[in-house]
User: Fold this.
Amino acid sequence: MENNNNFKKYFDKKSYTNGEIITIYINDLINSNKYNSILFIRTPTTGNWLDYIISENHNITRLYYNTLNVPFKKNDYCKLYKSSIIVELNNLEKKLKEINNTYDLIVIDPYHEYKVSYDNFNLLLSFLKNDGCIVSHDCCPNNVNSSTPRFTFGSWSGQTYLAFVKFAYNNSELFYTILNIDTGIGIISKTKKDGLKNVLDKYKQEQLLMIDFLNNYDKAYYYFINNSNDIINLIEP
Assistant:
């Protein structure tokens, strides 16, 4: 797929360090002044790059959710932002309802197991304003070794990319893309925006989703990489 001019500057970056390009992209979105109500969500093992995004002119809600599989110590993960909201995974929905807000921009680096990521996307959609965007990290893993279904130390993108694809497939009214840069920048919108589409090849999508990706993550990964232009609106350099 031809590179979209709206995203060209991000593909021109020389460094592809994990989290660096998406940090630049999110900063640009914030500085555009189109997004006033902003939610950042990360976990103990994902999204540390979110801690370094600071905006003096916007109200950013920062939320950490623990997972059932990773030990969590409050003081270890909130050194930069003491006001961050910390919840257990199974209390995420309850906490968002207590906050009782909708957002122009929701940025998430979810825990990368398939079900957790998929449930996160479904939940956050109901807290997104009609003209807002959800942006997710790790929607196109750099290699098969980082796409394992269970947590591994090091660079782990897991199966958030498969959750993103299924979420798009099950919400065909949405507009979306994945930028194949960094470890994949997934973008979701309820309204049409430059570079976003809502056209899926349902046959290839169904073939992907039929794969038992918990047991054959390597097969799922290579199928996605080899057919991503048809499966999802993937924008490449």
